Amino acid sequence: xxxxxxxxxxxxxFVIYVVMTIRDSLIKKNKSAKIRDLKISKxxxxxxxxxxxxxxxxxxxxxxxxxxxxxxxxxxxxxGCYCSxxxxxxxxxxxxxxxxxxVDTLLHEYKHHxxxxxxxxxxxxxxxxxxxxxxxxxxxxxxxxxAQKYRDTCFKTFKNNWL
Length: 163
Prior knowledge:
The chain is mainly alpha-helical. It contains five helices and three strands, in the order H-H-E-E-E-H-H-H.
């Protein structure tokens, strides 16, 4: 009787281990999936993320429409950038980039769109860039935190349509 209990106990532990391992590997696989693995166009993916941002982190309508530009090559220094003058996010996409990285970059740049509403805020950004540098820049720190906080939620919203 004790032997059957041990067998059932260890069998249950083994099944739990296998299920957890498979689940973890699927999560890692999805997050590390590459842009080339998308079932939809890169343009549609970018539009999905920006639309998600507008729905979940809206800003006043008088700000004007946010636009975007996709460059299909690597930039030597940045993954993306935000131009406050024309309210445009520029994203650099290559097939080897992970979908998670791209979502993170889009969220990061969207946060800049939220934070740099006026020329005064843009001038403050430039002043602080000279004062703190990029890595310690208060707006960059906040944008990285914003992207980290919401990237998994955003990714999960679309992963079934994307992969």
